[in-house]
């Protein structure tokens, strides 16, 4: 059989055998018009963004340098969890929280979907690296995609192109391993058929083969479905690698807190998508003398250092933040970051003077075009922007970026925060008794559903460690991995674990805690707990502060609301017990007994 010739296929800027073989195999299956090896250059960015403008996918913004607006297909707006699969060889390794199909069966289905799926399009090969390029063991990947939108988004979100490809061989010339990540929009073009601004397919699959460290995605062009370095690689596949190698891949921001005495603390915090993680990561403290710098807003990889402490690295290179609600008050640093330009905005509103706007931003325009392409005015009944609309912007532009953000060593974590969005029950903050109890807090984390994934908004679901849609293996084994991690270091070197809830509400639905910059008061209390400086009292659910234990100086809030935000309501907690029990039953036999013990102990403390 003679090899198929596809323009560009043989112009590979690499001799990496496994990469070349995989690219050829995919090109022969998907049958693109041409193959382009992505180098990540300025010229390439210009060529691709020009092409996206010509195709009607992008509108160049007059008011922000080198920035673009896009509106997706209305059926392609968020991660599709019901179409997301962990295809482990053994179903028991996928567990009750993931969709599963046998790898062979899934591959047979998807191979037929991919057959000819790039016809009429260009196939791009994007070498990328998650985390610092100069890591001793760089975490490499290659995304193959037929979406220019994905290529330019990956240029913001990852270290990619020639600089990544240069790491595909080590100093001795040996080929390094990489995670192959195949993405197709599933929208081939017949000869002469004109394209639509947002090609995608009604059939969607987001699939992980954990043993092979392989990702196959089909049919969606948006966010975590399509930018495969993010949730697919850095959480689902990386969590499996972390399980096997003894480290943690977590859905956590990383921030640096600097005290008035210039002491530095690093905090990692897990919240479900669209619960204010990006705002917390870039927070401007309202208490004088304290400063926050940012290292990441979504993902943390944590490994033990030689000193026995847990060090975190952010694998990403950009922010993919929820737009609505972001403004000069809630997140001034995000506003400053996007104002520098070089950013993409998807499913927000486009103003008549060539800027973007979304709900919650200052100065609503008198008229704009909504994400659905319709006329919009402040009087409109419909929202201008989709609830999961996003800005995609380079981390390097963040004015409060910590200088050590690109350090392959990572930063030593002093505290881990778990948080969700709960109207009741969960107090503003509590501190775990120890690592195992903190793991219990994380494992039973709950939140009301947000718009980051399709589904019913507001419904309370358990979201362990904010990882429910991102654990690449059995949740019970994942909890065991957390428990075991705590046994691998001295207790005094482990981060202390806290559980927070910024979203508790009063009877009339108002938020009891002002949130945003005021959350620095909770961070300060937590840090002072580590230093043995702040007071707390023991409650059935952990150590909790009273209002007097928090620094509330200058806070404009009703003291009764603060008390209510901090309260541990025993009846509400007793009502929570059967929900936790049902959740643990769902996890089944693989639930570590230590977590059953924690539940029994909590029950006992609440009975007392
Ligand atoms: O769409 S993403 O998964 O990238 C964003 C998120 O839900 O955090
Ligand atoms: Mn996220």
From TrEMBL:
- For this protein, what is the EC number? 4.1.1.32
Gene3D superfamilies, per the entry: 3.90.228.20, Phosphoenolpyruvate Carboxykinase, domain 1, Phosphoenolpyruvate Carboxykinase, domain 2
Single biological process term from Gene Ontology: response to lipid
GO MF annotations for this entry? GTP binding; manganese ion binding; phosphoenolpyruvate carboxykinase (GTP) activity
Task: Please share the entry's free-text remark on the cofactor.
Answer: Binds 1 Mn(2+) ion per subunit.
The cofactors named for this UniProt entry are: Mn(2+)
Q: Where does Mn(2+) bind?
A: 231, 251, 298
Indicate the segments forming the Phosphoenolpyruvate carboxykinase C-terminal P-loop domain, all copies: 247-605
Class in the EC hierarchy, top level: lyase
Report residues binding GTP: 274-279, 390, 421, 516-519
Q: Which InterPro entries match?
A: PEP_carboxykin_GTP_CS, PEP_carboxykinase_C, PEP_carboxykinase_GTP, PEP_carboxykinase_GTP_C, PEP_carboxykinase_GTP_N, PEP_carboxykinase_N
Q: Where is the active site?
A: 275
Record field: catalytic activity: oxaloacetate + GTP = phosphoenolpyruvate + GDP + CO2
**Residue positions binding substrate:** 79, 222-224, 273, 388-390
Self-association and partners: Monomer.
Q: Which family does it belong to?
A: Belongs to the phosphoenolpyruvate carboxykinase [GTP] family.
NCBIfam families reported for this sequence: PRK04210.1 (NF003253)
* Purpose of the protein: Catalyzes the conversion of oxaloacetate (OAA) to phosphoenolpyruvate (PEP), the rate-limiting step in the metabolic pathway that produces glucose from lactate and other precursors derived from the citric acid cycle.
Instruction: State the name under which the record lists this protein.
Output: Phosphoenolpyruvate carboxykinase [GTP]
What species does this protein belong to? Actinokineospora fastidiosa
């Amino acid at each position: 059989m003679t090899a198929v010739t596809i323009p560009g296929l043989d112009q590979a800027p690499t001799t990496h055998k496994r990469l070349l073989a995989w690219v050829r195999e995919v090109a022969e299956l998907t049958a693109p018009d041409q193959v382009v090896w992505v180098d990540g250059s300025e010229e390439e960015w210009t060529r691709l963004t020009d092409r996206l403008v010509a195709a009607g996918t992008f509108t160049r913004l007059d008011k922000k340098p080198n920035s673009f607006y896009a509106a997706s297909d209305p059926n392609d707006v968020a991660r599709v969890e019901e179409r997301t699969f962990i295809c482990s060889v053994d179903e028991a390794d996928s567990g009750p929280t993931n969709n599963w199909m046998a790898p062979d069966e899934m591959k047979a289905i998807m191979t037929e979907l991919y057959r000819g799926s790039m016809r009429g399009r260009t196939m791009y090969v994007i070498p990328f690296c998650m985390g610092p390029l100069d890591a001793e063991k760089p975490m490499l990947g290659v995304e193959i995609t037929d979406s220019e939108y994905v290529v330019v988004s990956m240029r913001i979100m990852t270290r990619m192109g020639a600089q990544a490809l240069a790491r595909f061989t080590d100093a001795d010339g040996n080929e390094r391993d990489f995670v192959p990540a195949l993405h197709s929009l599933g929208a081939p073009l017949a000869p002469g058929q004109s394209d639509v601004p947002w090609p995608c397919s009604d059939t969607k699959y987001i699939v992980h083969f954990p043993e092979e460290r392989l990702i196959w995605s089909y049919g969606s062009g948006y966010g975590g479905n399509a930018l495969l370095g993010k949730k697919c690689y850095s959480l689902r596949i990386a969590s499996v690698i972390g399980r096997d190698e003894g480290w943690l891949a977590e859905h956590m921001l990383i921030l640096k807190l600097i005290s008035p005495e210039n002491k530095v603390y690093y905090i990692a915090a897990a919240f479900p998508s669209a619960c204010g993680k990006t705002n917390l990561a870039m927070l401007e403290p309202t208490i004088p003398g304290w400063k926050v710098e940012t290292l990441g807003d979504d993902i943390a990889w944590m490994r033990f250092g030689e000193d026995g402490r847990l060090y975190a690295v952010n694998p990403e290179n950009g922010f993919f933040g929820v737009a609505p609600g972001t403004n000069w008050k809630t997140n001034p640093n995000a506003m400053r970051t996007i104002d520098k330009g070089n950013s993409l905005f998807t499913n927000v509103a486009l103003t008549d003077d060539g800027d973007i706007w979304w709900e919650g931003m200052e100065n609503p325009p008198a008229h704009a075009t909504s994400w659905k392409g319709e006329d919009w005015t402040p009087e409109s009944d419909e929202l201008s922007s989709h609830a999961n609309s996003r800005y995609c912007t380079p981390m390097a532009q963040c004015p409060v970026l910590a200088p050590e953000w690109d350090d392959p060593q990572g930063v030593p974590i002093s505290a881990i925060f778990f948080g969700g969005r709960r109207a009741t029950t969960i107090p503003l903050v509590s501190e775990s008794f120890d690592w195992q109890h903190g793991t219990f807090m994380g494992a039973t984390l709950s939140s009301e559903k947000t718009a980051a994934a399709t589904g019913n908004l507001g419904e309370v679901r358990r979201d362990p460690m904010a990882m429910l849609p991102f654990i690449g293996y059995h949740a019970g084994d994942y909890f065991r991995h957390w428990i075991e991690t705590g046994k691998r270091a001295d207790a005094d070197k482990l981060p202390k674990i806290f559980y927070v809830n910024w979203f508790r509400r009063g009877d009339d639905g108002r938020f009891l805690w002002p949130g945003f910059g005021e959350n620095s008061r909770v961070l300060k209390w937590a840090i002072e707990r580590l230093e043995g400086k702040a007071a707390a009292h023991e409650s059935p659910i952990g150590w909790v502060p009273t209002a007097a234990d928090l620094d509330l100086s200058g806070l404009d809030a009703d003291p009764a609301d603060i008390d209510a935000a901090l309260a541990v309501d025993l009846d509400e907690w007793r009502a929570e017990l059967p929900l936790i029990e049902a959740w643990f039953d769902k996890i089944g036999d693989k639930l570590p007994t230590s977590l059953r013990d924690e539940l029994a102990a909590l029950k006992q403390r609440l009975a007392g």
